[in-house]
Amino acid sequence: MRPCCKSFFLFSFFFLPFVLFSKIIEAESISDLEKYIDPKNLVVFDIDNTLMEPTQVLGSDQWFQNLINEYIVSGMGKQDAIELAVAEWTAVQSITQVKLVEDHADQVVGKFQKQGFTVMGLTTRGLGLSIRTVQQLQSLNVDMLHSAPVHHDVFFHNTRGCLFRGGILFTAATHKGRALFRLFERIDYHPKSVIFINDKYSNLREVEETCEERGIPFIGLRYGYLDNKVKNFRKDLAEIQFEHFGYILSDTDAEKILKDRKGRNS
Asked: How many beta carbons lie within 10 A of that of residue 144, not counting itself?
């Protein structure tokens, strides 16, 4: 074998598998998971804007991101802006009702669980919302504990405290990939491959990179079902709903108040 060919062979042998084992694909529906699933997969679901969302604009992920940006623009430091936005978002989550992003999302999760796949949730949410999040999902007929890799609570540090509870790993906005595999180390779980659906590409990349480091096949689905809704975020409705917070106005009621105000000011 000529030296150049030998070098190419060695490069392909050691590095090509890691390229083939990993990919991120655009997905318009949660049902797209079925195109890529196989018996070896650990199936991981993001929570916000993937499985569920609030029934109104207030409390949505896009509202939360907008809050952070507004506080930073007003002159607040990034960390202070995030902490204030998290506090307000958490307050809304404590009382808001939620709905499935897609009407059949609960059936998709349930189908994989019945077929014997290991299924779990993975979220940026912190420990303080763990019980509430489990309750929200259960109200939508989604029980992530049913076929999770472990059924008891697991707490560990990943720059901040992380908690696995109710079949969901709460990463407290830390690196999702490292948090996921620190959980696996704690419970002595060794997935043969990982498939993860999430609306944010950055979160998929964190898990993809960590899988690549460990030589574990990975498929990420960048879930775009709510892209238009996020792009056309109704800040005006959210502001009215936040003004009346204590109870939560529906989008329809907030729209009526907004029209009345415009009518009085015209």
From this structure: 25
Coil, strand or helix at 227: helix
Can you say whether the dihedral through the CA atoms of 85, 88, 94, 97 is positive or negative?
A: negative
Instruction: pLDDT band for 16, please (50, 70, 90 cuts).
Output: very low
Q: How many CA atoms lie within 13 Å of 40's alpha carbon, on the beta-carbon side?
A: 10
Whether pLDDT at 17 is above 80: no
State the pairing for strand pair 154-157/193-198: unpaired
pLDDT at 86: 92
CB 155, CB 144: distance < 8 Å: no
Question: What domains can be seen in the chain, in order of their start residue?
Answer: 22-53+99-225 (3.40.50.1000), 56-96 (no CATH)
Q: What is the pTM of this model?
A: 0.89
